[in-house]
Amino acid sequence: MSAPSRTIRRAQAGTTESAWVRWTLIALALAFMFLFLVLPLAAVATEALRKGINAYIEALKEPDAWSAIRLTLITAAIAVPMNLVFGVAAAWAIAKFEFRGKAFLTTLVDLPFAVSPVVAGLIYVLVFGAQGWLGPWLAAHDIKIIFAVPGIVLATVFVTFPFIARELIPLMQAQGTEEEQAAIVLGATGWQTFWRVTLPNIKWGLLYGVILCNARAMGEFGAVSVVSGHIRGQTNTMPLHVEVLYNEYQSVAAFAVASLLAILALVTLVIKSVIEWRHEREMKAIAELPPERPQPAVAA
After folding, report:
1. pLDDT tens, 172-202?
2. In sequence order, which residues have a C-beta less than 8 Å from that of residue 134 and are 6 or more positions away?
3. What is the spatial distance between Cα 187 and Cα 147, in angstroms, rounded to a whole number?
4. CA-based, 20 to 30 A from 275: which of 190, 234, 248, 267?
């Protein structure tokens, strides 16, 4: 085959690279995924089941493990809806309106990406701890935040709140404001415009952001580790409980709880893939719709 013919075939395939380059890149990507994704997951499953399924189940039924599982789910159940409200509100304000301080608000949304989770936890200790700014007042009113569930929830909310907003902001900016303006001109109220125009347009991005937010909330370690106090059976989430078990050389129990986190992560990936597939299918169906024919002019 001549060189021009090979170039044409590569261009039609969407690439100008030769076959060996493409296969080398694919092999490197697969090797990377196997080494850093498949192999660790297989090691976790192998270690968790090393002493049999009965030992695995007993490790998950242990009271401290169940307490950690319950606390992780409670924290995610509180943090995700809070971030859902904040993320939608922030994205709507940033994407749909012009106001003074808009750039500052956008910077605040990105702040948790720039701040270490450990530093975020230390900030909450500085503010709400016994020797912190509000510590004496909280102690006088018998309100406990640090080394308690409220502190864990606050730390989780801080590290996860950019996920939903950051998914929605570019999506809503790309959609513009024409449909909302048309709805308002036709007499719709602000809430009607949001529920019937804005929300249907962002539903897939919103679900994607909620999934990412939930995954980070359940797997957060750094900030929660600082504010939890590591009180076994009370303030240990699943990642913290795994650390405690591993440090006590209870490797089977540690990997059993870690495998549950891995299963939750895989379920998250499956849901994410399903949402992306549904979104692509919907976009393809819209693209295949026949164009509307212009209506013939009616003679006066």
Report:
1. 988 888 888 888 888 888 888 888 888 888 8
2. 127, 128
3. 51
4. 190
